[in-house]
Design goal:
With 179 residues, this protein is of the alpha/beta class. It contains six helices and seven strands, in the order βαβαβαβαβαββα. The two termini are 29 Å apart.
Length: 179
Amino acid sequence: MTAEPWQRAMIGGTRRANVLTSSDDALKIMKRAKRSLLIVGHKSAEGNKETEKPITYIIRLAKASHIPVLATAHTVLEFNKRGFPTSGSMPAVDIANRLRDQSWLGLDGKGPYDLVIMTGIPYHMEWLLFAGLKHSTKNLVLISLDRFYQPHADWSFANISTEKWQENLNEMITKLEGN
């Protein structure tokens, strides 16, 4: 299945992200990884009264998968309000630069990551972060868990509705909690 970038001018080049057609695709990749990192931006704390804020799903996902969370911008405050400890906080561009550095041993000093999952970062910024990582890292798998297609990730959802996106996240969390 192919997908188009959410913003028209965002052309991904010759190698484009594979589409996550179900939560099982993401779970298989997550389970294969030895060292994962979940990078969460401020958009995850935004929402409206009718739907749950994405940060609620992210916390549940992080707890179920035991993947460390790195908060960007002021998002760490939102995690703290909910009693969820993050592994750290730093600007998104800074973490991308560290991920490109093969000698960086990660937030915990135990070695480089082999899987990075991003969500809640503004689309255009996430696009650039994925582009930089795609072209400058060798053994790093990149997943976008946002509801808009990110062509520079290795794996991304297609452009989907908020309801379908929440359904996919719930499905992933339920399956992770069951293991």
